[in-house]
Amino acid sequence: MRIVILAKLTACVLFAFCISGCGPDDKKSAETAKTPIKMWVAPNENEEAFWNTMVKEWNKDPAHTPVEFTPIPAASSSEEAIMNALASGTEPDISSNIFIGFASQLVEIGQLEDLSKMSGFNELVNNRQMGKIIPAWQLNGEQHVLPIYINPIVWWWRGDLLKQYGFDHVPTRYDELYQLAERRAADNNGYVIQMTAGKNWWERWFDFIPLYYAQNGGKPYLAGHQATFADPAGQAVLTFMGKVFNSKWSSYDFTAADDPLATGQVLASARGPWDIARYHKQYPEILKTLQIGPMLTEKGDAHPYTFGDSKGVVIFSSSKRKAQAWAFIQWVFNNAEHDRSWLELTGMPPARSDLMSNPLFVNYFEKNPLEKAIASYVDVALPPAATTQTTEIQRSMTQMLEQVIFNHADPAATLDKSAQEINTLLAK
Q1: Phi, psi of 68 (to 5 degrees)
Q2: Looking at the DSSP assignment, which residues form a beta bridge with residue 316?
Q3: Left if phi > 0, otherwise alpha if psi is -120 to 50, otherwise beta: which for 173?
Q4: Comparing 74-83, 279-288, 389-398, which segment has the lowest mean pLDDT?
Q5: Which string of DSSP letters, residue by residue, matches 273-341?
Q6: How far apart are the first and last CA of the chain?
Q7: CB atoms within 10 A of CB 89
Q8: How do residues 358-381 score in pLDDT, each as one tens digit?
Q9: Helix extents (H) in 348-389
């Protein structure tokens, strides 16, 4: 059985890697009810601190099945580490740090439990105020992932530099950006915006995709195994991006080391809340100047949809402690105080729609206005498409962008070509 799973994993692998070795066909049986629940969590200091607190508190109750957590093992990616574990039969009971594209792969090979069939699922969704959020995480009508956090991608603007060019507000429309860019170009003082996040496939989550969500009112870019972005909204976005590059108002060669926003090379950059902590340490004075703005649209929507960099928690189908694992998950996420702790430790907004109204979070955001401005978009921050072909799809999008940026290709024709490539891929 493990060999069959390994073959399927290799066929639909999201990240290029090599799997070696094969574990036993069957796991040890006759495990007692008190055998610890094994959990893997995202390998970063802040998230580990949160889970350390949760596990210690949970384990104090002798009636609870104890939980043992460790960071996801070192590999080129969390996805690779998890797939290696599945191939060798060493996977945990629970894992966090799962995005919906990877979950799609795991569901395709039958590796994830449907949480909606667990006792108390609807109560948890209601208690955590996730009723409007959870539908975007459905896979084949089932709920295999419980979202933990949602990081809305928004524009960070240098308010001090905006004022230099006569702007007392952040731009929200394409034509406003053009006006700002022309003023910036007139004094030969650098670029206006970091239009693209980079050259890697995953960076389309931080440029084309959020701009497309914003322009089309939150409609998906894939639907029914078909690419849907070769439409008027996609054409508007790609034309806008092409104009910015062809006018030399941005560069495709910014690096993370440059941080063009902090250095003043640009007036705006699309970011998530995770950069706030880094700016506190590295650029505290720059942080004071920042203003948060929505994704730019043709007409200037004040609260448009955007992409939400988001991850969730899953229970593996192979777990012999599913009920106990689910009891732990319920215990963690049924308590808003726990979400408040998550927010304080990580700075990432919990996947809740009451962040702007629940006193627990209102109090926190009063002291952290920049985080509040970002979190206000949680209700319109959508996950990526639920597909097993994320890498290939977004590589096609990257090539599409580069054709417009470097070859001045016609946006409509380039969109059609990319959509056709993706449709062919999805038809296989």
Answers
A1: -120, 125
A2: 112
A3: beta
A4: 74-83
A5: TTHHHHHHHH-HHHHTTEEEEPPPBSS--SS--EEEEEEEEEEBTT-S-HHHHHHHHHHHHT-HHHHHH
A6: 25
A7: 16
A8: 999 999 999 999 999 999 999 999
A9: 359-367, 369-375
Residues 6+ apart with CB under 8 A from 170: 155, 157, 159, 162, 268, 291, 292, 293
Per DSSP, the three-state class of 107 is helix
Closest C-alpha to 52, from 263, 342, 254: 342
21: confidence class by pLDDT, cuts 50, 70, 90: very low
- Determine whether 345 is exposed, middle or buried from the number of CB atoms within 10 Å of its CB (0-12, 13-18, 19+): middle
Beta strands in 42-194 (DSSP E): 67-71, 94-98, 146-152, 154-158, 193-194
Question: Helix (H, G, I), strand (E, B), or coil: what is residue 367?
Answer: helix
Predicted structure pTM score = 0.88
Other Cβ atoms within 10 Å of 154 Cβ, number: 24
Cα(104)–Cα(108) distance, rounded to whole angstroms? 6
Contact (CB, 8 A) for 294 and 154: yes
Question: Kind of pairing, strands 306-315 and 94-98?
Answer: antiparallel
Distances (CA, A) of 257 to 96, 196, 318, 325, 326: 29, 15, 42, 41, 41
Q: Rounded to whole angstroms, how far apart are CA atoms 389 and 186?
A: 44
Q: Cα(231)–Cα(341) distance, rounded to whole angstroms? A: 42
